[in-house]
Structures
1.
Amino acid sequence: MVQGFLILLLCQLMGELVVTLLDVPIPGSVVGMVVLLIGLMLKGSVPEGLRLTSEGLLKVLPLLLVPAGVGLMTHFSVLSQYWGALLVALFFSTLVTMLVVALLLKFLSKEKSAEETE
């Protein structure tokens, strides 16, 4: 599990470095996840230590969301001022996400059915 934590922390560090050096307005942890994804795709498999660590973290994932909920309650006055704009943004972002996922699913299912017929 130590190896898995090390891999996760190194990917996050690389993401933070990329964001800091390039001054990109994306969270470093998101860039780190992309780095991890690329590394796993190049390797072709997930190391056992990383798998065990990830499964352990997923079990306590709800606890990691508590700070976000506390932040929402702390800034409730700001949220109540802009609830209309937030509602519109949430609606359209959900709509766009559903559309992108549907198109991606349609594209990938066509590709898979074409491979199966060959």
Note: Residues 83-117 form the longest helix (35 residues).
2.
Amino acid sequence: MNYFLAKTEPNTYSIDDLERDRRTTWDGVTNPQAVRAIREMKPGDIVFIYHSGGVSSVVGTAVVKSPGRDDPKNPKSAIVDLEFAGRLDSPVTLAEIKQSGKFDDWALVRQGRLSTMAVPEKFVAWMRARYPKAKM
């Protein structure tokens, strides 16, 4: 199983929307590096949902339900189907992630505008320690 992080503006599509819809097709990603991350996703992988746009927090998780694939509406993009897995009891802010000093080499910290990325195993372990009951 692999782990990814997907950013969304909460006023565009939030964790509330994903929880209500239960399942969605994640689209709209055009950065080549982020598109590669979506193409690497496989059913059963876990995606941390991250609210950007001033909120800057990991707010929940989703499970990948389809392989990443070409976006039929945009040949430079990719899409994947996600299913709501859960919310975090309290969001983990980007400030907390940076202050930990453990993830300085991760794209979330180094490339602030990248919307979708792989998640290092050490972040998953850190999150599991913080949220032992969360679906990860």
Note: Helices lie at 15-21, 32-40, 94-100, 107-110, 121-130.
